[in-house]
Each structure stands twice: as C-alpha cells, then as structure tokens.
Specification:
By secondary structure, this protein is an alpha+beta fold. The protein is built from 3 helices and 5 strands, in the order H-E-E-E-H-E-H-E. Strands 1-2-3-5-4 form a 5-stranded antiparallel β-sheet, covered by helices on one side. The structure holds guanosine-5'-monophosphate and zinc ion (ZN). Zinc ion (ZN) binds next to helix 1.
Length: about 120
C-alpha cells in the first residue's frame, strides 16, 4: 500500500527500530512508548483492520501472536507478564490502518477494562 506508514516501515522507506523480522512479520519499537517494552508487530501483508481478517489471512494473523510472544520472551517478560492490544477503528482509537499488535511490558499495567 503506497500510502501506508507501516508498509513504508516494512519496506524500509521510513526508519524504525526493528527488533524482529521474518518472511511474514516485522516487529518494531513504538515511537511513543507507554511502557518499557512497547513494540508493534505487523504482518508484511497490508491488512487495514481486524475487520478484514478472514480464512485467507488468519494463519498470518495467528503468526503475529507467535512473534509477540517471542518479542516478550526475548525482552524477559514472558513470565512476569505483558499485554497485547489490537485497536480497530475509531472508538478503539486506531490511528494507523495496517493491522498491528501492541506488545506492552516491563511494568505493572493497570486494569484495562472499565465498567
Ligand atoms: P494505534 O492507535 O493505531 O493502535 O497505534 C498506532 C501506534 O503507532 C501508536 O502507538 C503510535 O505511537 C505509533 N506510531 C505512529 N507513527 C509511528 C512511526 O512513524 N514510527 C513508529 N515506530 N511508531 C509510530
Ligand atoms: Zn500497510
């Protein structure tokens, strides 16, 4: 996708601190971290939101979970814990329309669900 920020990071047109990459996914540090570990894991394929996850790409999206766990393990937070977040569209505050998983860790994260 020509106009997508994360496609540009994947294509190395825009610099980012890449912490992991393979043939299907790239993980890089968030530019405005909210925790000691704040990495975004993205599929190389451009998928705008989780609404576009279907039979054809769900294995790829599953791989994102595998990479997230690997990133957290490598950072030393597999046992202490970490949080994975996927925002979809306006009410969730999605800003970049290329599916990305936030991987947060390294501090005690407060309760996320407010009732
Ligand atoms: P969203 O709100 O869409 O779930 O999250 C987008 C995330 O991308 C935000 O946490 C934001 O800080 C991060 N971000 C925005 N622009 C850039 C950038 O140019 N480089 C990096 N590494 N992260 C970015
Ligand atoms: Zn993209």
């Amino acid at each position: 996708m020509a106009d997508c920020l994360f496609c540009k990071i994947i294509g190395k047109e825009i610099p980012a601190e890449i912490v992991f990459e393979d043939d299907r996914a790239v993980a890089f540090k968030d530019i405005h971290p909210i925790a000691p570990l704040h990495v975004l894991v993205v599929p190389r394929e451009h998928i705008p939101t989780t609404n576009e996850v279907d039979d054809s790409n769900c294995a790829l999206v599953g791989h994102i979970f595998e990479v997230a766990a690997q990133v957290a393990r490598k950072a030393g937070f597999a046992e202490s814990g970490y949080r994975c977040i996927l925002n979809t569209n306006r009410d969730a505050g999605q800003e970049v329309f290329h599916v990305h998983m936030h991987v947060l860790g390294g501090k005690r994260l407060g309760p996320m669900l407010s009732r």
